[in-house]
Design goal:
Length: 155
């Protein structure tokens, strides 16, 4: 069976075994050499594998079936080819650090540019820390963009 046929067989039967899951996860992990973000989508399949080790067969949850369908899309993309820009290592030209808490957020670059923002007391705890972290991660390189310290081709 090809990798895609194995996934299709798993979807059609609606169930799988621990041995089959182990093989499938191994194959998909190999695919991550070409498409690195695949690892993120294997967590539910790994959880299913852990539960399957105590049974002979285990049914696929709808979420796992969706992940398998997504893996078929990734396999098709890997078959077509992937941009070499995703495979080549480049040493970063700019490195940024940012952080947040309910009282404020800030960041700095290795070039020495720093910033901070204190959240007014009446606005504290109104946004999740994840949102504040995301905002800080956007603002920190934005400082260099405004200062025109980022050139075409920088990474």
């Amino acid at each position: 069976l090809t990798w895609t046929e194995g996934l299709e067989h798993m979807l059609a039967s609606g169930r799988t075994s621990a041995k089959n899951l182990e093989s499938t996860i191994g194959r998909l992990t190999h695919m991550s050499m070409v498409i690195p973000n695949v690892h993120h989508f294997l967590s539910r399949l790994r959880d299913l594998l852990w539960r399957a080790k105590r049974r002979h067969w285990i049914p696929l949850s709808p979420a796992c079936a969706d992940d398998i369908r997504l893996m078929k899309v990734f396999l098709a993309q890997a078959w077509k080819g992937v941009s070499l820009n995703l495979l080549a290592y480049r040493k970063p030209t700019h490195v940024y650090y940012s952080d947040s808490c309910p009282f404020g957020l800030g960041g700095y670059s290795t070039a020495g540019h720093a910033w901070r923002f204190q959240i007014p007391s009446d606005l504290r705890f109104r946004a999740s820390n994840n949102l504040l972290e995301h905002i800080a991660a956007i603002i920190t390189p934005w400082i260099d963009i405004i200062r025109t310290d980022i050139q075409a081709g920088d990474c």
